[in-house]
Specification:
Elements: H1 6-21, H2 25-38, H3 46-92, H4 95-99, H5 103-145, H6 147-154, H7 157-194, H8 196-201, H9 205-258, H10 264-281, H11 283-304, E1 325-335, E2 338-348, E3 353-357, H12 364-371, E4 379-384, E5 387-388, H13 394-399, E6 401-404, H14 415-420, H15 428-437, H16 441-445, H17 464-478, E7 482-486, H18 494-508, E8 512-516, H19 520-523, E9 528-533, E10 536-541, H20 543-549, H21 552-559
Parallel strand pairs: 3-8, 3-9, 6-7, 7-8
Antiparallel strand pairs: 1-2, 1-4, 4-5, 9-10
Length: 563
């Protein structure tokens, strides 16, 4: 992703190279101090040599300061870009994908895996490339002065390389297990916080704590499996590296005594050794970073590589949508061999109200999900004004559809922003008109901040009935040709329901409406009542006709449909 900011990455890399090159100053100065200033009594070189070294260190630290700031700025830009890309991808995925992935798991990928992925990219520029350059620059300097002593110094490296290679192969699956355990913990935490009222209502706090404690212990166990490997490997690496300096100094002393090697060379090698093995000392940190980032990157790109929801923006966009809806032998299954809707055929003419009734699990909500194309039919076809629904742009379809769900959802922002979801350019007058029609204006006016009042998480500051009236106001504001109401009045008391029913009748008067309801008052005036059972249409007609037949609808009316 660094190609998006080539200048930032290039400048950072250039400063890294300059900082790395300046490490040669200290061993060179050491050699001059020993061989020239001390052995040859060149006191005139003492001050210039020391000042040169201090100046080089000063320049190196200044460059390091700018590089650190620049790399952090680059990292934040990359994290921001990738986080937006992942979030945008999530918005384009089909609803079915969210059915099989928990919110906590998804949040973990966005909040934790994205920064870990980009951290690897930044650290490659900030540490890995400079470390490799530093190693070869110092090795070249040492080889220039004594290739024999250089070979002795580098002798432990093949062993260190083998240990590091086999450790990375061994550790990667353990990092993946640790990451998955952390994601599972986040998912459980999200679920428990979302269901905190249920936990308190059923006094299951101890059980919830036990589940969270088990998940937390599992994270600790998985992490300690990673740490166990590190605790065994890196002391061995340090032993090899630090033993090398003793061996190098031993050979250097021997060659000074017996081969006439200048004393400054072993001293320069001693100083160089720290710079030579500094990259190796960072292997532990960089390996952890790389392995963790590799696991995180796989989890991030699993999302990015998913196929987008089809026809989200592509497809036909008719200029006029009158609202005729036809189901022709339509069927859908959430899982194989478990059809939710099967062989459904019905016709809704423009302006008609169709009521869907039936026992729980009959497939009523699934019919509405098929009309919004949250799910696609497995068989048959759905036509809108004669157009096969799969040829239409989903964006166009949903722009022309108003959907009031059974669980009314409000975002944790102002009421105005929640309502403007339906019509971005709506004026306050239009908003208040919609609130009045939905019988919601009264309680909104009573709030200190009116339309600027925050709804709270999931609309927690409002009662169930108030949230549904706000959702109905949102649908009224949208004024769509196709209206879908899923138990839209289920949480309203009788008095409020009568007022909202009048608003809904006005709303339904010139548009096609599909209504799911268990109350007789909601469905009795429908133009067509469709009775579903086990995913099949078993009866259809008007209220009086269906009652006279004495079938399933009559039984439902007697058992559960209430005035």
């Amino acid at each position: 992703m660094t190609f998006r900011y080539p200048w930032r990455a290039g400048i950072s890399l250039a400063m890294a190279v300059a900082c790395t090159a300046l490490v040669l100053v200290l061993p060179s100065v050491t050699q001059v101090l020993v061989d020239e200033v001390i052995d040859k009594h060149r006191g005139d070189l003492l001050v210039p040599t020391v000042l040169t070294a201090i100046g080089a260190i000063f320049v190196r630290q200044v460059l390091f300061t700018f590089r650190t700031y620049g790399n952090n700025a680059l990292e934040q830009k990359l994290v921001h870009d990738l986080r937006l890309e992942v979030y945008n991808k999530l918005q384009r995925l089909p609803i079915k994908w969210f059915d099989s992935n928990s919110s906590g798991e998804i949040m973990s990928r966005v909040a934790s895996d994205v920064p870990a992925t980009d951290r690897v990219i930044v650290e490659t520029i900030d540490q890995t490339i400079p470390a490799i350059l530093q190693f070869f620059i110092i090795a070249g300097y040492m080889c220039y002065h004594s290739w024999q002593l250089t070979l002795v110094t580098l002798a432990p490296l093949p062993f260190i390389g083998c240990i590091t290679y086999f450790y990375s192969r061994f550790a990667e699956p353990r990092w993946r297990e640790s990451s998955e355990a952390s994601a599972a913990l986040n998912s459980l935490l999200h679920d428990n916080l979302s269901g905190i009222r249920q936990i308190k209502a059923y006094t299951v706090e101890p059980e919830a704590l036990d589940r969270f404690g088990d998940a937390s212990l599992n994270v600790g166990r998985k992490h300690m499996r990673v740490m166990k490997g590190q605790a065994m490997v890196w002391p061995g690496v340090s032993l090899l590296a630090e033993s090398g300096i003793i061996i190098m100094m031993g050979f250097g002393a021997y060659w000074v005594l017996n081969a006439g090697m200048p004393k400054g060379i072993p001293m320069a090698f001693l100083v160089s050794w720290g710079f030579l093995f500094d990259p190796i000392s960072r292997i532990n940190t960089l390996t952890q970073l790389y392995l963790g980032g590799k696991v995180s990157a796989k989890r991030v790109f699993e999302v990015l590589d998913m196929l987008d929801e089809t026809n989200l923006t592509e497809g036909d966009r008719p200029d006029v949508f009158k609202g005729k809806v036809e189901f022709d032998n339509a069927g859908f299954s959430y899982a194989p061999d478990a059809p939710a809707v099967r062989g459904l055929s019905l016709v809704a003419e423009p302006g008609m109200t169709v009521a869907l009734v039936g026992p729980t699990g009959a497939g009523k909500s699934t019919v509405l999900n098929l009309l919004t194309r949250f799910y696609e039919t497995d068989q048959g076809i759905i036509l809108l004004d004669g157009h096969p629904i799969e040829t239409l742009s989903k964006e166009w379809l949903r722009d022309n559809t108003g959907y009031v769900t059974q669980e009314s959802f409000l975002f944790n922002t102002s009421l105005r922003d929640n309502l403007l979801l339906a019509k971005k350019d709506a004026t306050d007058d239009e908003i208040w008109a919609a609130l009045e029609a939905a019988n919601a204006a009264g309680f909104v006016r009573e709030m200190p901040q009116g339309l600027d009042s925050l709804a709270g998480e999931r609309g927690v500051r409002f009662s169930g009935g108030e949230k549904q009236r706000l959702s109905i106001a949102r649908a009224l504001l949208k004024n769509p040709p196709l209206l879908l109401l899923d138990e839209a009045t289920s949480a309203l008391d009788n008095e409020t329901e009568r007022l909202v029913q009048a608003a809904l009748e006005t709303l339904r008067s010139d548009r096609t409406s599909f209504v799911i309801a268990h109350r007789l008052s909601t469905v009795r005036k429908a133009d067509l009542i469709c009775v579903l059972d086990d995913g099949k249409l078993v009866e259809s007609g008007k209220h009086d006709d269906l009652l006279a037949r004495g079938g399933l609808y009559a039984k439902l009316c007697a058992a559960s449909l209430r005035e």
